[in-house]
């Protein structure tokens, strides 16, 4: 479903596990098998290329999927070689045919002749001659992604790439006024006062989550919503907007915070199915702090000039800061996507500026640290307009250190430093 239907691993897996009644160790095994295979696809494809006498694009897609699953069991999991090969070959025989099963058996026996380190020594470029090419194979990232990340993180690049391959912990958030952190099982998050890290178990089994009073949300995402809610606002503070609200995690937290202050939130989302997710997460119209969820284009927001007090623009992006949770993003995005995305991000930010009232607060965020999606977008919109300025957002992240962004007064969170998604934050002000 991830490859054939464009699904996201972290959203597809829970539904599949529930459908087949898997829990406990079986669910953990299935999760690691699927997510781990997608995460390490680049490394495994390099190994398979060395074992197959034709380009991988000429291998039937169903066979290639099965081979990747088999390679992950052989090189990335503690599965005995005979079991990994037998189950994979059996899968190919059932789904494709006897001939393909023989091919898979031969390939996997070759793969199983060495361990992962042995294969990397053969298939990864020499780091002395091509450092980034070596890192791309070893850490299973497309080369263009490695090059982009090096620009923003420098010598910490190996640490960041390694962190992208560590399965993320499940983090819950208590929605203020509806639940408390104390009623959630787990260890308190270091930065968000509303989060806990769930040590084990199904989040859906937590009563507050099942009832919609709490949710699953990365700590970095929580910090984005909290930064906007904590920003200084001059005068009226009643109308809040989440401009690109889907799937609704930040909207739900913002609505809870707004309700405590007598304010209301409107969420806009261009995609109908994502707008429905926002409505579900927030409780919809009439829920505390929720004025409405609109299926609307954020580049043509249905609001008057200078009418909104607080705006969150968590802009659509490459998602390269969330590769721990969405490993498939690294294989779906291309360098060519950046141009279209950055144009969209600028249009969205310009529209947010239009509806922001003077004295209000506008937080631009992305779950990508790539400079063209962060500093370049903010500079392109803010610099030409004398009524706009950046205010230091870092004081709105109490306890967070070592988070200077690529522009003065901006912030950048990192998986390898903070244990969060790589969220970028910029607080934009509009003078009267």
Describe the overall structure.
By secondary structure, this protein is of the alpha/beta class. The chain has four domains: 2-119, NusB-like (N-utilizing Substance Protein B Homolog, Chain A); 124-164, no CATH class; 170-216, Alpha-Beta Plaits (2-Layer Sandwich); 219-430, Vaccinia Virus protein VP39 (Rossmann fold, 3-Layer(aba) Sandwich), CATH 3.40.50.150. It has 19 helices and twelve strands. Strands 5, 6, 7, 8, 9, 10, 11 and 12 form an eight-stranded mixed sheet that branches. A four-stranded antiparallel sheet has the order 2-3-1-4. α9 (131-138) crosses α10 (143-153). The longest helix has 19 residues, at 337-355.
Number of domains: 4
- Low-pLDDT segments, ≥5 res: none
Output the structural class. Answer: alpha/beta
Number of strands: 12
Quaternary state, please? single chain
**CATH architectural type of the largest domain:** 3-Layer(aba) Sandwich
What do we call the CATH homologous superfamily of the largest domain? Vaccinia Virus protein VP39
Name the helicity range: 40-55%
Taken as a percent bin, the fraction of beta residues is 5-15%
Assigned CATH class of the largest domain: Alpha Beta
CATH fold call of the largest domain: Rossmann fold
Mean pLDDT: 95
* Rg calculated over all Cα atoms: 23 Å
Straight-line distance between termini: 50 Å
